[in-house]
Amino acid sequence: METITHVSCFAVINLLVILVGYSLIRAKAILLNWTILISTIAVVSYLFIQEGAILRMLAIIATTFTGMKVIAVTEGYRNKNLTLTFKQWCVYAIGWVGMRAEPFETLGAKPLPCARSMINTGISRVVAGAALILLARYVEHRYHSDEFTYLAVTALLLVGFSLVLHFGFLAISAGMWRFSGVNTYLLFRHPARALSLTELWSKRWNIAFSEMTSVAVFRPLRKRMGPAAALLIAFVFSGLLHELALSVPVNAGYGLPTLYFLLQGLLVLVEKLLMSKNIFFLKNNLVGRVWVFFWLVLPMPLLFHPAFIKGILWPMAGL
Protein backbone atom coordinates (compact mmCIF):
# COMPACT_ATOMS: atom_id res chain seq x y z
CA MET A 1 0.00 0.00 0.00
CA GLU A 2 2.84 2.38 0.84
CA THR A 3 4.44 1.70 -2.54
CA ILE A 4 1.21 2.66 -4.32
CA THR A 5 1.10 5.88 -2.29
CA HIS A 6 4.71 6.69 -3.14
CA VAL A 7 4.20 6.01 -6.85
CA SER A 8 1.05 8.16 -6.83
CA CYS A 9 2.91 11.05 -5.17
CA PHE A 10 5.72 10.65 -7.69
CA ALA A 11 3.23 10.81 -10.59
CA VAL A 12 1.53 13.92 -9.16
CA ILE A 13 4.86 15.69 -8.60
CA ASN A 14 6.06 15.05 -12.15
CA LEU A 15 2.70 15.96 -13.67
CA LEU A 16 2.67 19.25 -11.76
CA VAL A 17 6.19 20.07 -12.93
CA ILE A 18 5.12 19.44 -16.53
CA LEU A 19 1.93 21.49 -16.25
CA VAL A 20 3.59 24.41 -14.46
CA GLY A 21 6.75 24.02 -16.53
CA TYR A 22 5.23 25.57 -19.64
CA SER A 23 4.55 28.84 -17.81
CA LEU A 24 8.07 28.78 -16.39
CA ILE A 25 9.48 28.29 -19.88
CA ARG A 26 7.50 31.27 -21.15
CA ALA A 27 8.71 33.34 -18.19
CA LYS A 28 12.31 32.16 -18.78
CA ALA A 29 12.56 31.49 -15.04
CA ILE A 30 15.94 29.74 -15.07
CA LEU A 31 16.77 30.09 -11.36
CA LEU A 32 13.32 28.93 -10.29
CA ASN A 33 13.56 25.97 -12.67
CA TRP A 34 16.82 24.84 -11.07
CA THR A 35 15.28 25.22 -7.62
CA ILE A 36 12.31 23.08 -8.63
CA LEU A 37 14.62 20.43 -10.10
CA ILE A 38 16.68 20.10 -6.92
CA SER A 39 13.60 20.18 -4.69
CA THR A 40 11.64 17.55 -6.59
CA ILE A 41 14.61 15.19 -6.78
CA ALA A 42 15.11 15.52 -3.02
CA VAL A 43 11.42 14.90 -2.30
CA VAL A 44 11.14 11.87 -4.60
CA SER A 45 14.40 10.41 -3.31
CA TYR A 46 13.09 10.71 0.25
CA LEU A 47 9.68 9.27 -0.68
CA PHE A 48 11.31 6.14 -2.12
CA ILE A 49 14.02 5.76 0.52
CA GLN A 50 12.46 2.56 1.89
CA GLU A 51 11.57 1.17 -1.53
CA GLY A 52 13.67 -1.25 -3.54
CA ALA A 53 16.76 0.16 -5.25
CA ILE A 54 15.40 -0.46 -8.77
CA LEU A 55 12.13 1.37 -8.15
CA ARG A 56 13.95 4.21 -6.41
CA MET A 57 16.36 4.51 -9.33
CA LEU A 58 13.54 4.68 -11.89
CA ALA A 59 11.67 7.31 -9.87
CA ILE A 60 14.75 9.49 -9.45
CA ILE A 61 15.72 9.21 -13.13
CA ALA A 62 12.21 10.12 -14.33
CA THR A 63 12.00 13.09 -11.96
CA THR A 64 15.45 14.30 -13.00
CA PHE A 65 14.55 14.12 -16.68
CA THR A 66 11.27 15.98 -16.11
CA GLY A 67 12.99 18.83 -14.31
CA MET A 68 15.88 18.97 -16.75
CA LYS A 69 13.49 19.18 -19.69
CA VAL A 70 11.99 22.36 -18.24
CA ILE A 71 15.49 23.82 -17.85
CA ALA A 72 16.74 22.67 -21.26
CA VAL A 73 13.68 23.96 -23.12
CA THR A 74 13.84 27.28 -21.25
CA GLU A 75 17.46 27.68 -22.30
CA GLY A 76 16.67 26.51 -25.84
CA TYR A 77 14.02 29.21 -26.35
CA ARG A 78 15.77 31.83 -24.26
CA ASN A 79 16.73 34.07 -27.17
CA LYS A 80 13.78 33.39 -29.45
CA ASN A 81 10.00 33.30 -29.40
CA LEU A 82 8.35 30.28 -27.82
CA THR A 83 6.69 28.64 -30.82
CA LEU A 84 6.02 25.40 -28.94
CA THR A 85 2.36 25.07 -27.91
CA PHE A 86 1.24 23.79 -24.51
CA LYS A 87 -0.03 20.56 -26.07
CA GLN A 88 3.25 20.02 -27.93
CA TRP A 89 5.18 20.68 -24.73
CA CYS A 90 3.14 18.13 -22.76
CA VAL A 91 3.49 15.46 -25.45
CA TYR A 92 7.23 16.09 -25.63
CA ALA A 93 7.75 16.14 -21.86
CA ILE A 94 5.89 12.87 -21.35
CA GLY A 95 6.77 11.00 -24.53
CA TRP A 96 10.35 11.74 -25.57
CA VAL A 97 13.69 11.33 -23.79
CA GLY A 98 15.68 13.88 -25.82
CA MET A 99 16.28 17.40 -24.52
CA ARG A 100 15.29 19.34 -27.65
CA ALA A 101 11.60 20.17 -27.87
CA GLU A 102 11.79 21.93 -31.27
CA PRO A 103 11.06 18.75 -33.28
CA PHE A 104 7.64 18.54 -31.59
CA GLU A 105 6.58 21.85 -33.14
CA THR A 106 5.57 19.79 -36.20
CA LEU A 107 3.53 17.26 -34.21
CA GLY A 108 0.65 16.04 -36.37
CA ALA A 109 2.32 16.77 -39.72
CA LYS A 110 2.76 14.15 -42.43
CA PRO A 111 4.91 11.11 -41.56
CA LEU A 112 8.66 11.46 -41.98
CA PRO A 113 10.95 8.95 -43.72
CA CYS A 114 13.00 6.26 -41.94
CA ALA A 115 10.33 5.66 -39.29
CA ARG A 116 9.86 1.98 -40.04
CA SER A 117 13.59 1.29 -40.39
CA MET A 118 14.21 2.88 -36.97
CA ILE A 119 11.52 0.70 -35.43
CA ASN A 120 12.87 -2.45 -37.08
CA THR A 121 16.38 -1.60 -35.93
CA GLY A 122 15.12 -1.04 -32.41
CA ILE A 123 13.28 -4.36 -32.35
CA SER A 124 16.39 -6.20 -33.51
CA ARG A 125 18.42 -4.55 -30.73
CA VAL A 126 15.83 -5.52 -28.13
CA VAL A 127 16.01 -9.14 -29.28
CA ALA A 128 19.82 -9.11 -29.25
CA GLY A 129 19.92 -7.50 -25.82
CA ALA A 130 17.40 -9.97 -24.39
CA ALA A 131 19.53 -12.82 -25.74
CA LEU A 132 22.60 -11.46 -23.93
CA ILE A 133 20.65 -11.13 -20.69
CA LEU A 134 19.50 -14.74 -20.99
CA LEU A 135 23.09 -15.77 -21.72
CA ALA A 136 24.24 -13.93 -18.60
CA ARG A 137 21.68 -15.82 -16.53
CA TYR A 138 22.87 -19.11 -18.02
CA VAL A 139 26.54 -18.33 -17.32
CA GLU A 140 25.78 -17.39 -13.71
CA HIS A 141 23.73 -20.53 -13.04
CA ARG A 142 26.14 -22.81 -14.94
CA TYR A 143 29.45 -21.61 -13.53
CA HIS A 144 28.33 -20.11 -10.23
CA SER A 145 30.23 -17.31 -8.51
CA ASP A 146 33.90 -16.64 -9.08
CA GLU A 147 35.75 -13.55 -10.26
CA PHE A 148 35.64 -14.45 -13.95
CA THR A 149 31.94 -15.31 -13.81
CA TYR A 150 31.22 -12.02 -12.03
CA LEU A 151 33.03 -10.02 -14.72
CA ALA A 152 31.53 -12.00 -17.61
CA VAL A 153 27.97 -11.80 -16.30
CA THR A 154 28.31 -8.09 -15.50
CA ALA A 155 29.66 -7.32 -18.97
CA LEU A 156 26.89 -9.31 -20.65
CA LEU A 157 24.23 -7.55 -18.56
CA LEU A 158 25.61 -4.06 -19.18
CA VAL A 159 25.70 -4.62 -22.93
CA GLY A 160 22.39 -6.48 -22.92
CA PHE A 161 20.41 -3.86 -21.03
CA SER A 162 22.03 -1.09 -23.08
CA LEU A 163 20.92 -2.80 -26.29
CA VAL A 164 17.38 -3.23 -24.96
CA LEU A 165 16.95 0.26 -23.49
CA HIS A 166 19.34 2.61 -25.30
CA PHE A 167 19.52 1.07 -28.75
CA GLY A 168 16.17 -0.71 -28.66
CA PHE A 169 13.28 1.06 -26.97
CA LEU A 170 14.63 4.55 -27.69
CA ALA A 171 15.04 3.74 -31.39
CA ILE A 172 11.49 2.36 -31.48
CA SER A 173 10.25 5.53 -29.77
CA ALA A 174 12.06 7.72 -32.31
CA GLY A 175 10.53 5.78 -35.18
CA MET A 176 7.02 5.94 -33.74
CA TRP A 177 7.15 9.73 -33.34
CA ARG A 178 8.31 10.13 -36.93
CA PHE A 179 4.98 8.62 -38.03
CA SER A 180 3.39 11.67 -36.36
CA GLY A 181 5.58 14.17 -38.22
CA VAL A 182 8.04 14.71 -35.38
CA ASN A 183 11.67 14.81 -36.52
CA THR A 184 12.97 12.60 -33.73
CA TYR A 185 16.32 10.90 -34.11
CA LEU A 186 18.52 8.13 -32.75
CA LEU A 187 19.94 9.11 -29.37
CA PHE A 188 22.75 6.54 -29.66
CA ARG A 189 24.45 6.93 -33.04
CA HIS A 190 26.88 4.11 -33.81
CA PRO A 191 29.23 4.76 -30.85
CA ALA A 192 31.62 2.04 -32.04
CA ARG A 193 32.53 4.32 -34.96
CA ALA A 194 33.86 7.07 -32.69
CA LEU A 195 37.53 7.87 -33.30
CA SER A 196 37.90 10.15 -30.28
CA LEU A 197 36.28 10.70 -26.91
CA THR A 198 35.24 14.14 -28.12
CA GLU A 199 33.27 12.57 -30.95
CA LEU A 200 31.84 9.87 -28.70
CA TRP A 201 30.48 12.15 -26.00
CA SER A 202 29.28 14.98 -28.24
CA LYS A 203 27.86 13.16 -31.26
CA ARG A 204 27.40 9.45 -30.68
CA TRP A 205 26.68 8.39 -27.09
CA ASN A 206 23.49 9.39 -25.27
CA ILE A 207 22.60 12.49 -27.26
CA ALA A 208 19.93 13.31 -24.66
CA PHE A 209 22.63 13.82 -22.02
CA SER A 210 24.82 15.69 -24.50
CA GLU A 211 21.93 18.03 -25.32
CA MET A 212 21.12 18.43 -21.65
CA THR A 213 24.60 19.38 -20.51
CA SER A 214 25.30 21.51 -23.59
CA VAL A 215 22.12 23.59 -23.41
CA ALA A 216 21.72 23.80 -19.63
CA VAL A 217 25.35 24.01 -18.47
CA PHE A 218 28.03 24.42 -21.14
CA ARG A 219 26.52 27.21 -23.24
CA PRO A 220 25.43 29.42 -20.31
CA LEU A 221 28.89 29.11 -18.68
CA ARG A 222 31.09 29.28 -21.79
CA LYS A 223 31.10 33.08 -22.09
CA ARG A 224 31.60 33.60 -18.36
CA MET A 225 34.28 31.01 -17.65
CA GLY A 226 35.75 30.04 -21.01
CA PRO A 227 35.17 26.83 -22.99
CA ALA A 228 37.62 24.63 -21.06
CA ALA A 229 36.18 25.36 -17.61
CA ALA A 230 32.62 25.17 -18.94
CA LEU A 231 33.33 21.79 -20.54
CA LEU A 232 34.78 20.37 -17.31
CA ILE A 233 31.82 21.63 -15.30
CA ALA A 234 29.46 20.08 -17.86
CA PHE A 235 31.18 16.70 -17.45
CA VAL A 236 31.10 17.00 -13.65
CA PHE A 237 27.40 17.85 -13.86
CA SER A 238 26.86 14.75 -15.99
CA GLY A 239 28.68 12.78 -13.30
CA LEU A 240 26.38 14.19 -10.61
CA LEU A 241 23.33 13.17 -12.63
CA HIS A 242 24.74 9.66 -12.89
CA GLU A 243 25.25 9.69 -9.11
CA LEU A 244 21.49 10.13 -8.81
CA ALA A 245 20.89 7.06 -10.95
CA LEU A 246 23.75 4.79 -9.89
CA SER A 247 24.75 5.73 -6.33
CA VAL A 248 21.77 7.29 -4.55
CA PRO A 249 19.41 4.31 -5.09
CA VAL A 250 21.89 1.92 -3.42
CA ASN A 251 23.24 4.54 -0.99
CA ALA A 252 26.83 3.66 -1.89
CA GLY A 253 29.56 4.44 -4.40
CA TYR A 254 29.23 8.19 -3.95
CA GLY A 255 31.75 10.21 -5.93
CA LEU A 256 32.83 7.41 -8.23
CA PRO A 257 30.57 8.23 -11.23
CA THR A 258 31.53 11.90 -10.90
CA LEU A 259 35.20 10.94 -10.90
CA TYR A 260 34.62 8.88 -14.05
CA PHE A 261 33.11 11.82 -15.92
CA LEU A 262 35.72 14.25 -14.61
CA LEU A 263 38.35 11.95 -16.11
CA GLN A 264 36.44 11.88 -19.41
CA GLY A 265 36.28 15.68 -19.43
CA LEU A 266 40.02 15.97 -18.80
CA LEU A 267 40.73 13.51 -21.61
CA VAL A 268 38.52 15.49 -24.00
CA LEU A 269 40.55 18.61 -23.13
CA VAL A 270 43.76 16.65 -23.81
CA GLU A 271 42.38 15.68 -27.22
CA LYS A 272 41.53 19.29 -28.02
CA LEU A 273 45.02 20.38 -26.97
CA LEU A 274 46.61 17.75 -29.20
CA MET A 275 44.43 18.87 -32.10
CA SER A 276 45.41 22.52 -31.59
CA LYS A 277 49.09 21.51 -31.79
CA ASN A 278 48.49 19.29 -34.84
CA ILE A 279 49.68 16.33 -32.77
CA PHE A 280 46.63 14.22 -33.30
CA PHE A 281 47.56 10.55 -33.52
CA LEU A 282 43.88 9.61 -33.42
CA LYS A 283 43.54 10.37 -37.12
CA ASN A 284 44.46 6.73 -37.60
CA ASN A 285 41.16 4.83 -37.41
CA LEU A 286 42.55 1.82 -35.56
CA VAL A 287 44.46 3.93 -33.03
CA GLY A 288 41.42 6.13 -32.51
CA ARG A 289 39.12 3.22 -31.76
CA VAL A 290 41.65 1.61 -29.41
CA TRP A 291 42.05 4.96 -27.60
CA VAL A 292 38.29 5.36 -27.15
CA PHE A 293 37.75 1.77 -26.04
CA PHE A 294 40.66 1.89 -23.58
CA TRP A 295 39.57 5.08 -21.80
CA LEU A 296 35.92 4.16 -21.91
CA VAL A 297 36.30 0.68 -20.43
CA LEU A 298 39.37 0.85 -18.16
CA PRO A 299 37.85 3.28 -15.62
CA MET A 300 34.32 1.86 -16.00
CA PRO A 301 34.34 0.29 -12.49
CA LEU A 302 34.15 3.87 -11.23
CA LEU A 303 30.89 4.39 -13.09
CA PHE A 304 29.31 0.98 -12.55
CA HIS A 305 30.57 0.36 -9.04
CA PRO A 306 30.00 -2.92 -7.16
CA ALA A 307 27.06 -1.61 -5.12
CA PHE A 308 25.17 -0.70 -8.30
CA ILE A 309 26.04 -3.99 -9.99
CA LYS A 310 24.90 -6.14 -7.07
CA GLY A 311 22.06 -3.89 -5.93
CA ILE A 312 20.46 -3.01 -9.27
CA LEU A 313 22.06 -4.52 -12.38
CA TRP A 314 22.00 -8.18 -11.35
CA PRO A 315 18.54 -7.98 -9.70
CA MET A 316 17.12 -6.43 -12.89
CA ALA A 317 18.07 -9.70 -14.60
CA GLY A 318 16.60 -11.77 -11.79
CA LEU A 319 20.02 -12.69 -10.39
Overall radius of gyration: 20 Å
Main sheet characteristics: none
Portion in strands = under 5%
Helix content: over 70%
The helix/strand order is: HHHHHHHHHHHHH
**What oligomeric state do the depicted chains represent?**
single chain
The geometry reads as globular
Q: Tally of extended strands?
A: 0
Average pLDDT metric:
94
| Low-confidence parts | none
Count of alpha and pi helical runs: 13
Structural class: mainly alpha
The figure for the number of domains is 3
**Straight-line distance between termini:** 26 Å
Report on the architecture of this protein:
It is a multi-pass membrane protein. GO terms for molecular function: O-acyltransferase activity. With 319 residues, the protein is mainly alpha-helical. It folds into three domains: 1-107; 115-178; 187-319, no CATH class. Helices cover 74% and strands 0% of the residues. Helix 2 runs antiparallel to helix 3 (53-76) and helix 5 (115-143) runs antiparallel to helix 6 (147-178). The protein starts with a helix and ends with a helix.
